[in-house]
Amino acid sequence: MNNNVVSRLDSSRESKAVGNYTHITKIEPNATFYTFSGQVGADIDGNFPIEFNQQVNNTFTNISNLLKSIDLTPDNVIKVNIWSTENIDWEYFDKIYEDFFGKPFPSMTVAYVNALGLEEIKLEIEIWAAT
Asked: Which H, E and C letters describe the chain, residue by residue?
């Protein structure tokens, strides 16, 4: 991680993470905060693939494009909130997540829900970032 504003702190002696996340993320004073609307698995034309893992790919592509559009990188991400209507294939998801964020990981919350904004949406990921 190469960022002078965001620090992901190791708290593994106090509470071991059960996934790819950091319990504590520190943001330096006078940082600029960004919140992003939840990103979903639609492609650039607004079409939703039926296959869950393709929605995972599209969601991370959409997040990447938004970050790039304002000259940010995954290192600027301080919090990830994930909502899913289906069981997440963690082996697949973790590979995409690790390739995207690298270590140490940002803080994260995951929830399984009955439905999201549209019937076609199987996954929604919201991020917060700071510079």
From this structure: CCCCCEEEECCCCCCCCCCCCCCEEEECCCCCEEECCCEECCCCCCCCCCCHHHHHHHHHHHHHHHHHHCCCCHHHEEEEEEEECCCCCHHHHHHHHHHHHCCCCCEEEEEECCCCCCCCCCEEEEEEEEC
* Spatial contact of 106 and 22, defined as CB atoms under 8 Å apart: yes
- C-alpha 38/C-alpha 121 separation (Å) is 11
Query: Distances from the Cα of 27 to the Cαs of 10, 21, 72, in angstroms?
Result: 14, 16, 15
Q: Which residues does residue 126 pair with via DSSP β-bridges, in sequence order?
A: 81
Instruction: Tell me the C-alpha distance between 100 and 72, whole Å.
Output: 13
What are the structure tokens assigned to 104, written together? 């140490």
Does the predicted TM-score (pTM) go above 0.90? no
Centre a 10 Å sphere on the Cβ of residue 65 and count the other Cβ atoms it contains: 11
Pick the residue with more confidence: 94 or 17? 94
